[in-house]
């Protein structure tokens, strides 16, 4: 394309010695095809008032003197340049079509941002209506009319949000897993669609990840939503980590995981919307980085986006009257995924730019996608996690040959382990842990699922339950006996720390574990509902002991410089 431009200039003003230009009526064999194109065009462009066609001048190299380019030459030059550019364009029609397609897509996507003229519930972002009762966005007709008359639809909370704010658990997202949903449900795909415009916006993205379900809620394909916009990573719910956890170890672990996942972020913040840890730091970073852009809070369902916005507004309200006013009509939060159903615009910053809450992205590989809607609250930890160990102490039997059930959602067969290998479960307390010999496990599960092994809760749900069809064989290598080898993270639930030698030996002479120099392999078989993902990851350094066994990443100066920094 670049080579097409100089051509017409060369044709209009040939350098001396003048090429043998064709005189009309005379054929010059040496004249190039391009030259004759130039001449024929020139002839056509000659003023019609000219009495007879005169031979065209041979202009010198420079535009001075009697042979300087005439106005006609200049005009022709321009025309030919334009024609050449058009020609170059015509030579790449696919490129052009692609550009047009992208522009159209962008226009369409941006049009979805604000469904014009539709008032939405300030609690969940669903469009307000007076139709089907019980569906998200529904309001009593009398209330709707009154608020509309007074131009106050912005202050309306829909019926479902009122229930949620009183502690009822009503999800509104169905059809993406074990429960069928219903007429009043919106689908996970619809919610994704609502975020599709975002990659075309100029925005600052604040991506939230739940520390209890770090891998399951990470939303690795965030760029599908965020486009090329800058991302600040916020880790939520750190108040749920076991007592005496050192947040510096957690910060280093998170940064290492983010670097491994090749996600480019500005920085990492460890936060709690409950205790307000880390919130001030995120606010300062947002203020510094937003540069007149809007700020979008993005993440998987139930990671705490709406709660984070509440915490932000509460903290900002001390200094910012705009944030203080926004607190009155803030988004609703609840323990069930699928609370927020549409982007919610919040006037939160004194200096301009809007803050947006967004509907959570529902991922098919989390436990929430397969369990019944009524069982969803049992997946949410209510208070600080406390590891539950198996075996609990020295005197208990070893794990080899045994099976552990985590509620009715996870089964772990310990095929090969050291005599004192310990598994520590971190997750919601409502899920019981039961151990039986592997030989009896099938029978036990069949008998107890829905009864002892819950969720699924109750006989009826157990009958419609998809079962534990997904099987993962895990060979877990360990190099040292005195530190956890790995975590097994169950998407949407929690994690299990695997310690080769978890229980302190009461017998100092016992050295079975040392026989192969302290390294070896454990073999576990993990079963979960089919779409649920199982991740094996570096152990999350939680609890007091972690500050002794955790090793910070050893970095070169350059790596140190390039890595995102963590804050809390
Ligand atoms: N302990 C603790 N709980 C939190 C924190 N943040 C959120 N939660 C709880 O997590 C649950 C989900 O919070 P929401 O703010 O509704 O989550 P969300 O990401 O907006 O969820 P969707 O709108 O469904 O996508 C609620 O029960 C919150 O109380 C936190 O920092 N600590
Ligand atoms: Mg929400």
Automatic annotation (TrEMBL):
Entry GO CC: chloroplast
Q: What is the lineage of its organism?
A: Eukaryota, Viridiplantae, Streptophyta, Embryophyta, Tracheophyta
Q: Which GO terms describe its molecular function?
A: GTP binding; GTPase activity
Q: What is the protein name stated in its UniProt record?
A: CP-type G domain-containing protein
CP-type G domain location is 188-364
Biased composition regions of type Basic residues, renumbered to the chain:
100-111
| Region (Disordered), start-end ranges | 1-111
Q: Name one GO biological process term.
A: nitric oxide biosynthetic process
Q: Which residue positions does the secretion signal occupy? A: none
A Pfam family the protein falls into: MMR_HSR1
């Amino acid at each position: 394309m670049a080579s097409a431009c100089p051509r017409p200039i060369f044709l209009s003003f040939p350098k001396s010695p003048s090429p043998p230009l064709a005189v009309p009526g005379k054929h010059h064999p040496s004249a190039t095809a391009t030259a004759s194109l130039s001449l024929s065009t020139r002839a056509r462009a000659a003023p019609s008032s000219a009495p007879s066609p005169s031979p065209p001048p041979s202009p010198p190299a420079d535009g001075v003197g009697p042979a300087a380019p005439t106005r006609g030459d200049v005009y022709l030059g321009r025309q030919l340049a334009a024609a050449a550019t058009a020609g170059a364009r015509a030579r790449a029609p696919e490129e052009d079509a692609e550009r047009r397609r992208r522009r159209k897509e962008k226009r369409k996507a941006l049009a979805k941002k604000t469904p014009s003229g539709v008032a939405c519930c300030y609690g969940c972002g669903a469009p307000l209506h007076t139709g089907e009762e019980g569906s998200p966005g529904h309001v009593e007709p009398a209330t709707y009319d009154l608020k509309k008359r007074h131009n106050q639809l912005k202050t309306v909370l829909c019926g479902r949000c009122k229930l949620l704010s009183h502690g009822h658990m009503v999800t509104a997202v169905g059809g993406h897993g074990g429960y069928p949903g219903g007429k009043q449900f919106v689908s996970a795909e619809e919610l994704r669609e609502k975020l599709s415009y975002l990659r075309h916006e100029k925005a600052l993205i604040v991506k939230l990840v739940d520390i209890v379900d770090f891998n399951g809620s990470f939303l690795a394909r965030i760029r599908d939503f965020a486009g090329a916009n800058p991302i600040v990573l916020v880790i939520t719910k750190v108040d749920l980590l076991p007592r005496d956890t050192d947040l510096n170890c957690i910060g280093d672990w998170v940064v290492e995981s983010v670097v491994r996942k090749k996600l480019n972020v500005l920085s990492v913040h460890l936060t709690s919307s409950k205790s307000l840890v880390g919130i001030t730091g995120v606010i300062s970073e947002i203020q510094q980085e937003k540069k007149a852009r809007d700020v979008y809070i993005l993440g998987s369902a139930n990671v705490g986006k709406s709660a984070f916005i509440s915490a932000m507004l509460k903290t900002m309200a001390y200094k910012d009257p705009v944030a203080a006013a926004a607190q009155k009509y803030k988004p609703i939060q609840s323990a069930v995924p699928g609370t927020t159903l549409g982007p919610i615009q919040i006037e939160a910053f004194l200096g301009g730019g809007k803050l947006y809450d967004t509907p959570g992205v529902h991922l098919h590989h989390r436990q929430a996608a397969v369990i019944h809607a009524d069982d969803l609250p049992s997946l949410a930890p209510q208070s600080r996690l406390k590891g539950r160990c198996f075996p609990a102490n020295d005197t208990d039997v070893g794990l080899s040959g045994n099976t552990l059930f985590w509620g009715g959602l996870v089964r772990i067969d310990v095929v090969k382990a050291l005599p004192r290998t310990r598994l520590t479960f971190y997750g919601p307390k409502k899920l019981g842990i039961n151990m039986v010999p592997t030989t009896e496990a099938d029978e036990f599960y069949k008998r107890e699922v829905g009864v002892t092994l819950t969720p699924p809760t109750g006989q009826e749900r157990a009958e419609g339950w998809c079962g534990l069809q997904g099987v993962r064989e895990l060979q877990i290598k360990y190099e040292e006996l005195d530190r956890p080898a790995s975590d097994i993270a169950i998407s949407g639930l929690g994690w299990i720390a695997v310690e080769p030698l978890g229980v302190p030996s009461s017998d100092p002479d016992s050295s079975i574990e040392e026989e192969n120099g302290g390294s070896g392999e454990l073999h576990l078989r993990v079963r979960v509902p089919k779409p649920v993902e199982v991740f094996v990851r570096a152990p999350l350094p939680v609890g007091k002991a972690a500050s002794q066994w955790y090793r910070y990443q050893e970095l070169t100066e350059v790596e140190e410089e390039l890595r995102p920094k963590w804050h809390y």
